[in-house]
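> forwarded from #structure-qc
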């Protein structure tokens, strides 16, 4: 069972629960560590826990029958995902990989469903979550069809700073150029060139192993 202060730190949604709802949530959450490059799940696996990123960085992707891989989303600490799969009790339709050492918070399906049935605050969170994720995946489809590599990098970065999905996080993220390339589906060199261009436009600042967003609105709308 996760300590109460840890759950409040990694799960913004937990702070709006009643005391009884919070304790029910806490009893149903455990932590699990994954090493860099480890597969958290493959397509078709049954990962029945609702999942939060307590620490680290996760890539959600899919691979076609011809072997082409496409990144669906990157998720940093504070992200919670997989609610649709948990509700429908179906196999995962995507694969999850830890891009660095990552600690996940895993909520039992029975606990998730209890909150789903009993907590108005939890359901409000889920509605916002579904809405943002839908917008994200629509944007991904648009991005792949219309934007160049720098545009794709800009959109992927902007989603890592989405204020609804990550309400507690500041504008600086510890992330390498290699990790950014993996999330955006490009080489480290191409990612580096894109970062330099976005920095030159005043949208972000590149540090040693970090990126600071200076203008999130313009970054999210960047089209090249």
């Amino acid at each position: 069972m996760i300590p109460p202060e840890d759950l409040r730190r990694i799960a913004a949604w937990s702070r709006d629960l009643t005391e009884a709802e919070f304790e029910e949530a806490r009893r149903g959450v455990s932590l699990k560590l994954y090493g860099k490059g480890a597969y958290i799940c493959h397509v078709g696996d049954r990962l029945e826990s609702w999942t939060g990123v307590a620490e680290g960085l996760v890539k959600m992707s899919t691979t076609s029958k011809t072997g082409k891989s496409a990144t669906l989303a990157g998720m940093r600490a504070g992200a919670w995902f997989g609610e649709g799969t948990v509700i429908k009790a179906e196999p995962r339709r995507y694969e999850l990989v830890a891009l660095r050492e990552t600690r996940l918070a895993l909520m039992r399906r029975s606990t998730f469903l209890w909150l789903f049935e009993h907590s108005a605050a939890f359901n409000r969170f889920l509605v916002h979550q579904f809405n943002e994720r839908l917008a994200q995946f629509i944007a991904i489809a648009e991005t792949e069809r219309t934007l160049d590599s720098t545009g794709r990098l800009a959109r992927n970065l902007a989603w890592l700073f989405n204020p609804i999905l990550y309400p507690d996080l500041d504008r600086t993220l510890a992330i390498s150029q290699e990790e950014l390339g993996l999330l955006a589906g490009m080489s480290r060199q191409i990612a580096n060139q894109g970062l330099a261009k976005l920095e030159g436009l005043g949208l972000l600042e590149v540090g040693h192993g970090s990126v600071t967003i200076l203008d999130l609105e313009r970054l999210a709308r960047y089209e090249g």
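QC bot note: The chain has a mean pLDDT of 90. The first helix runs from residue 4 to 10.
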